[in-house]
Amino acid sequence: MKKFYFIGILLVVLVIFSSMTAEQQSLQHFLQTTLSTKPFEAQLSQLAIPYWDTIVSVDERGYFAFVEFLIRKSAHFLMFATIAVALLQFRLHPIIVLIIAFGIALGDEFRQSFTPGRTMTMQDVWLDSAGAVFGIVLWLTYSNLMQQKATSR
């Protein structure tokens, strides 16, 4: 039963965050206060990420907006890695977990398209799915290591 609660909580958190406007989710003030010295600015300035028919970079958006972009996309990736691991607890085949995670990502992006200032993009669906693949690979690797450890005793 705890498995159902955990996946339910993850999905509720996902819906809450995707229901927020970009302004409501903004980390700009927090980042400006916390990272006022702009750590790693030189290194981050070397990155240019193609995203939604544009290039996202420090030069293009500014340091704090770029860091926020990285945090938001990392959060998507890690959220879907966590969702995949939670789904694996139901002993579903990894391909089924990936299909479910893809469906959740697609549904989340579609639902998000109704939020003012937010858009639906397949790039986010692919990013979320990559996070799910990461979670699956991590879980399978961990499970195999635990099995090998148990059989070697």
Automatic annotation (TrEMBL):
Amino-acid biosynthesis in keyword set: no
Sorted keywords for this record are: Membrane, Transmembrane, Transmembrane helix
Keyword Hydrolase in record: no
Q: Domain (VanZ-like): give its ranges.
A: 6-140
Residue ranges spanning the membrane: these are 77-104, 125-142
- What is the protein's name according to its record? VanZ like family protein
